[in-house]
């Protein structure tokens, strides 16, 4: 089990780093994309939750498919 937690942690940190770059770009380009400023917190925090859940699901799913 600790190996699974390490894999999830590693992938989550990598995914959050990529997510951070996306949020940084979104902060400066949201007007060009037609996004309202009051929608940004929902987009940012919702996508962060999706990244965290998705990375855990990816590792767990891949682990079960390998077996």
In short:
This protein is mostly helical. Helix content is 88%, strand content 0%. The protein has two helices and no strands.
Give a verbal description of the structure.
This protein is an all-alpha fold and 67 residues long. The protein has 2 helices and no strands. Helix 1 (2-33) packs antiparallel against helix 2 (40-66).
Give the radius of gyration: 15 Å
- What proportion of the residues is helical, as a percent range? over 70%
Regions with pLDDT < 50 over 5+ consecutive residues? Answer: none
Strand content: under 5%
Shape: elongated
Total number of beta strands: 0
Number of helices: 2
List keywords for this structure.
single chain, 67 residues, mainly alpha, 2 helices, 88% helix, elongated
Per-chain topology:
Blueprint: H1 2-33, H2 40-66
Helix pairs in contact: 1-2
